């Protein structure tokens, strides 16, 4: 008796992902996307819909669980204000794709020469986001 085993392609599904977070400069950020799909999905990380900066502070890793799911990580060490923005985890295979987006906000002490003073003497620089019609939500004079 011969058996033929066939695996159907399954669109990727992200079942666990990072949320919006707030960090201080110099800290470490770790973003996680846990996925399933057949064949195994590949991942593409972006920052504000652009490729990640070519910087050694950015590193990616992944591992396969005993259930066959894949967990992808994006790690950023020694974060800077310019590392803030909207991060996207895009997973895809031949059956389709899925994505997850969330913001990473980097706070720092307000400058001694003036500047915005919000949230108990801390300030943030936020890159414009498409859903806000490319208008910056923070200004001062």
Describe the structure.
The protein has 141 residues and is mainly β. The protein has a domain at 11-108: Immunoglobulins (Immunoglobulin-like), CATH 2.60.40.10. 0% of the residues lie in helices and 49% in strands. The chain has strands at residues 10-17, 21-23, 29-38, 42-47, 50-51, 58-64, 70-76, 85-93, 96-109, 122-124. It is elongated, with a radius of gyration of 19 Å. The termini are far apart.
CATH-defined architecture of the domain at 11-108: Sandwich
Radius of gyration: 19 Å
Could you describe the largest sheet, including whether it forms a barrel? 6 strands, mixed
Helix content: under 10%
So what's the CATH class of the domain at 11-108? Mainly Beta
Summed up, the helix count is 0
Overall 3D form: elongated
Low confidence ranges: 110-122, 124-141
Report the sheet-strand fraction: over 45%
The average pLDDT is 82
CATH topological fold name of the domain at 11-108: Immunoglobulin-like
Structural class: mainly beta
Helix-strand sequence: EEEEEEEEEE
Question: What's the CATH H-level superfamily name of the domain at 11-108?
Answer: Immunoglobulins
Number of extended strands: 10
End-to-end span in angstroms? 81 Å
């Amino acid at each position: 008796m011969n058996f033929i085993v066939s695996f159907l392609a399954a669109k990727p599904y992200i079942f666990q992902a990072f949320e919006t977070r707030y960090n201080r400069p110099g800290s470490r950020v770790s973003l996680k996307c846990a996925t399933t799909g057949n064949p195994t999905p590949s991942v593409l990380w972006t920052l504000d819909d652009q490729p990640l900066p070519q910087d050694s502070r950015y590193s990616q890793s992944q591992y396969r669980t005993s259930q066959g799911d894949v967990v992808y990580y994006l790690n950023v060490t020694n974060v800077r204000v310019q590392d803030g923005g909207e991060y996207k985890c895009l997973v895809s295979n031949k059956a389709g794709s899925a994505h997850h987006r969330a913001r990473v906000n980097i706070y720092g002490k307000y400058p001694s020469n003036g500047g915005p003073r919000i949230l108990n003497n801390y300030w943030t620089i936020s890159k414009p986001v498409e859903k806000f019609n490319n208008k910056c939500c923070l200004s001062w004079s």
